[in-house]
Amino acid sequence: QGQEKLSCNPKKENGTHVVLCELGNPMKAGARITVDMELSVSGLEDMGDAITFHLQLRSKNSPSPSNASVMVTVPVEAEAEMELRGNSLPATTVLPTNWHWVEGSRRLEDHGIKVEHVYELHNKGPGTVSGVTLSLAVPHLLGEHVLLYLLELGTEGGMNCSHHPVLNPAQV
């Protein structure tokens, strides 16, 4: 007939989390009810593709081994929005017209002007992420000529890096 809010209490039973809800007291014989429940569960990032709930209807007045029981499996979809930010320091670089690359030199200034590229990967949520792969393609050759001489690659925040081509081949 009408809608009522359920009174529910969470507790732990035999190492599992249980939520007990009082549906009606007293309830008339032959009564039919429909219950819509909304559950909010956190920390599901490592739960896999689904979570299963065991639902059981029990009566305090007439315990019976045939109490209705059902398993409900709900798919889990984690959501997180990633954002990549990048800067070049300095933002603009102009080589002098009389500058020439000096082959075989081990001096940094003979290989060009130092430019540092910084990339930051941010998780905007709402979920946490793991196992993220970021691939950056840096043009280092123009035909057979060196376009950018790649000196080093560094990371912060517990990330692993692999790189190609070989960094600093002339050991500048």
From TrEMBL:
Principal place of residence: membrane
Sequence ranges assigned to domain Integrin alpha third immunoglobulin-like in this UniProt record: 83-171
Boundaries of every Integrin alpha second immunoglobulin-like domain copy: 3-76
Intracellular or extracellular location(s): Membrane
Cellular compartments per GO CC: external side of plasma membrane; integrin complex
Keywords, alphabetical: Glycoprotein, Integrin, Membrane
GO BP, sorted A to Z: angiogenesis; cell adhesion mediated by integrin; cell-cell adhesion; cell-matrix adhesion; integrin-mediated signaling pathway
Keyword Disulfide bond carried by entry: no
Signal peptide: none
One GO MF term attached to the UniProt entry: integrin binding
Highest taxon in the source lineage: Eukaryota
Membrane topology summary: Single-pass type I membrane protein
InterPro entries the record matches: Integrin_alpha_Ig-like_2, Integrin_alpha_Ig-like_3, Integrin_dom_sf
Protein name in UniProt: ITA2B protein
Organism, as annotated: Irena cyanogastra
Taxonomic lineage of the native organism: Eukaryota, Metazoa, Chordata, Craniata, Vertebrata
GN (gene name): Itga2b_1
